[in-house]
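To the wet lab folks,

You asked to see what we're planning to order before we commit. Fair enough. Below is the target structure as tokens, and below that is the sequence we designed to fit it. If anything looks off to you, flag it before the synthesis order goes out.
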């Protein structure tokens, strides 16, 4: 089963994150990517320079025409930059995609530090979007922001407590990503209806990690679309991201992109 993922997210002109990273990840893992673009960003490895929001009605039209014709085996949300966009996207999901598993990457801040979500919109994300999700994938700062407990998560035990508090808000499962923890040993904590699953890895000493959050969430969405159980989808996604970081091409003077295409063999056609 190929697996079709409808991605609702923003564009990254630098190609390392956002819709560009999503499409690359889904394709590299054997899935099919469809998109509804929520905003255009002018950014590179040094950060976001400007954001051009897409008209809300057009965002919804993109979603509806894909769902009406192509359909989707999973949905993935990324950059939803305002409460109005979140509310509108939720309405379409509720009416036209309620039976489709939804992966929510609660994108709030770009790798370079630029805000990608209005502060006032966090409540809408928490109250409207999270309960629709099959799984949410916050990093530690995002989990703290949603829970309203800044700088409170520093251990795996803290991550477990955060996952429990987030799951109580309605999503089917929660993956708290540990990349912001101190030290070389990193843990991602997944909480689903079967309990906790811990995914461990080692920190890679590199500045080229732009788009890892988008990539992980889209990779998980691909696994779900292909019929994988959630822990297996998370495990494959983590392995894919680790290999992509190790193979980063080294572009740019800041937080560079990773190698999304490492699973794809070069075409030797004649």
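Sequence we intend to order:
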């Amino acid at each position: 089963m190929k697996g079709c993922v409808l991605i609702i997210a923003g564009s990254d002109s630098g190609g390392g994150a956002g819709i560009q990273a999503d499409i690359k990840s889904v394709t590299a893992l054997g899935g099919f990517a469809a998109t509804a673009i929520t905003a255009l960003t002018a950014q590179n490895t040094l950060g976001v320079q400007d954001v051009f929001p897409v008209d809300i009605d057009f965002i919804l039209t993109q979603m509806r025409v894909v769902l009406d014709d192509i359909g989707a085996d999973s949905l993935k949300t990324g950059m939803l930059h305002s409460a109005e966009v979140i509310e509108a996207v939720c309405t379409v999901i509720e009416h036209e995609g309620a039976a489709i598993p939804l992966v929510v990457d609660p994108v709030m801040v770009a790798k370079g530090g630029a805000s990608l979500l209005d502060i006032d919109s966090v409540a809408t994300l928490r109250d409207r979007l999270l309960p629709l999700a099959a799984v949410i994938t916050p990093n530690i700062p995002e989990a703290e922001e949603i829970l309203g407990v800044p700088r409170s998560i520093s251990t795996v035990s803290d991550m477990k407590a955060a996952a429990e508090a987030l799951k109580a808000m309605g999503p089917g499962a929660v993956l708290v990503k540990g990349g912001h923890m101190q030290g070389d040993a990193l843990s991602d904590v997944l909480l689903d209806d079967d309990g906790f699953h811990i995914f461990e890895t080692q920190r890679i000493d590199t500045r080229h990690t732009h788009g890892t959050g988008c990539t992980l969430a889209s990779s998980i969405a691909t696994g779900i679309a292909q019929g994988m159980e959630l822990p297996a989808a998370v495990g494959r996604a983590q392995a894919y991201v680790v290999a992509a970081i190790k193979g980063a091409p080294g572009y740019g003077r800041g937080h560079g992109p990773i190698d999304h295409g490492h699973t794809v063999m070069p075409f030797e056609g004649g």
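Structural context that might help your review: The first strand starts at residue 4 and ends at 12. The chain is about 35% helix and 20% strand.

Thanks,
Computational group
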